[in-house]
Fold Ribonuclease 3.
Amino acid sequence: MRIIKKIFSSSRSTEDGIFFDKLEKLLGFKPNNLNHYRKAFTHRSMNKMDEKGNAISYERLEFLGDAMLGSVIAAHLFNKVPNGDEGYLTKMRSKIVSREHLNELGKDFNLIQFVESKVSPQHFGENVHGNIFEAFIGAIYLDKGFVFCEKFIHKKIIKPYVDIDRLEGKVISYKSLLIEWCQKEKKSFTYEIYDDNGTGSQKFFGVKLHIDNKVIAKARATSKKKAEEIASKRAYFVFQQKIDNNS
Amino acid sequence: MRIIKKIFSSSRSTEDGIFFDKLEKLLGFKPNNLNHYRKAFTHRSMNKMDEKGNAISYERLEFLGDAMLGSVIAAHLFNKVPNGDEGYLTKMRSKIVSREHLNELGKDFNLIQFVESKVSPQHFGENVHGNIFEAFIGAIYLDKGFVFCEKFIHKKIIKPYVDIDRLEGKVISYKSLLIEWCQKEKKSFTYEIYDDNGTGSQKFFGVKLHIDNKVIAKARATSKKKAEEIASKRAYFVFQQKIDNNS
């Protein structure tokens, strides 16, 4: 394995190497075949064709990724909410895979940095982030198969982003839930911005949440508010037992 | 493994044994956990609950099966039609998983024989066959996981039932295609009904297609016409090379 990897590494171009490294960081594993990901980030304005003359763009992969997301989220909801009927499960899945939510995910993953296009990103349309996000999921499925794709969706999407209580409207904001608990328990808390980079639509904020002068959670997102909310949610799960006992 | 199987067999009730055997025949493999399939065939009129008080009926499993079918068919179309764009793929998938088609599949699998209900089948509504069919797919996924479920869908649904040329309207009838070829090639052909059983909506027809006095294909379906069409399609694939060379 090591030898194969070495040969592979040495035959890669520098550009491929950078793409591979960035992808690996995003995926949390080594991609097998970069071509699938290249397709997922190719806008149709590039007019690319494969060796058989079929058009290459992320649009076909969107269809595939949408289907994979749909079935993984369906299985997750089915197991997680054993008393939810068909109508409930359908409604919850629609919320999770809504255009709005997928656009957020695409932005948070900053996938647009990889897109190859002959038109400027301003002309992509507002759903481009969600569309590329779906295509990215499709590429993971082609590259690694269903089981791996499912694991990725669980680790990188369901765990950090999908919160059934919140989707049901039971929890409006984890930040306010956490602040309330800190005040009740007489604990000090601070949200510290430690990272603030990128420009325009690619701007990113990193937030550290300190409770009693200890960093309890960190989060990075496209707005300060969102990063604070994600960090609060992470802290909430750290303290969940305690908070639930106090409420 | 053999010992475990023996213990399992001897501890099964006769009723479970019959259910197990019928399922095995339908699935083409041994089910692990009969409970998933029992749920897939339980109508809500039974008012069954699990040990935690959650209602048991096939409706939740329909949601799961629909999602699994959707993703397996999506991956199949994606691979099979490399020049089909997102709109084409979406349209073809809708045709394959249409209510009408799923109802046909449910009927051909004769799944209604397994349904436990306190209301008579006449009151189930016309989509019951498709609904149980989806629930059945959901049960296979729970029992055996995605990869197995995908194999089942390929072997028992896509291979015998999904025909892209026909869905595209390129082939209207395999029977007429085959007859035309037989006449051109001066081959004799007969459609022989060898099986005609069941009553009412559960009626089944078995058809053998003889070409030059040799049985080339067999098929069983809920109407004589459908069984002839399926047998013709099977024979078509046997002779495909020859037919394509002649047309």
Summary: The first helix of chain A runs from residue 2 to 11.
